[in-house]
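Hey, does this match?
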Amino acid sequence: HVQLVESGGGLVQPGGSLSCSCAASGLTFNSYFMGWFRQAPGKGREWVAYINRGGGTYYADSVKGRFTIFQDNTKPMLYLRMNTLKPEDTAMYYCAAELVSGGNWRSIDHWSYWGQGTQVTVS
């Protein structure tokens, strides 16, 4: 079965950098679309970034220019590099995977598989 396990969150000061990782198993990694979402306390889960099967990357406006999504198909691992972090980036960060193309990949309903999350705190 598909399993996604995030790691690498933590506490960082504003302006700092942090990386999140997501270890994927039970899937043919380069056949899947992969994404990162986040959920702040008291708020809904929001889309952060997404990488398609061709390696194209897409970002929410709030993180564009500061965050980078990339993957290593040989491991297989998904990463989110976060620079110039702000207090409003504080959230639980989740990786997600989806096999089927099309649909609204900004919506949580589009994604079939989720990790358990890793906490990022900017303070």
